[in-house]
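Session log. Operator J.P. requested a structure for one protein chain; no other inputs attached. Running the standard single-chain path with token output.
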Amino acid sequence: LKMLFAPDAPLLVGFSFKNDLRELGRSTWADHCRRPPPNLCDLQTLSGKSTDGLARLVERTMHQPLCKVEQRSYWLRRPLRAAQRHYAALDAFVLLQVGSKLVDVPLSDPKHLAERLRAEMTAQVAQRAPAGSRSSNR
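Structure written below.
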């Protein structure tokens, strides 16, 4: 986890990561998780629909439903049930599919996909920055 929050970490694709940060902040990893990872692409932010949940974004971009029933199951019990493992894998994979659709780069080109996702997030961060804090090219 510490590696994922390092400045040279690989691109992380998530959704509504502020919720994950809140949970991590309550864990033994709290010291490493005070801020979002520097290489995070939050698809909720990228989609421009901050009120939509992941299921709605999947429906809108993939034209398929995403069942979130297991999201509220008891994740502290080990071993995880097969349904929980399936949900976790699907939840992670669907992020890549949605990210691919949002930036119109196929999953078959992961390097270009990562570059586009980084570029889109960088552009959004720059747009949200106060005018005085943006760097100029003078």
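Operator note: Helices lie at 17-25, 43-47, 54-62, 82-103, 110-128.
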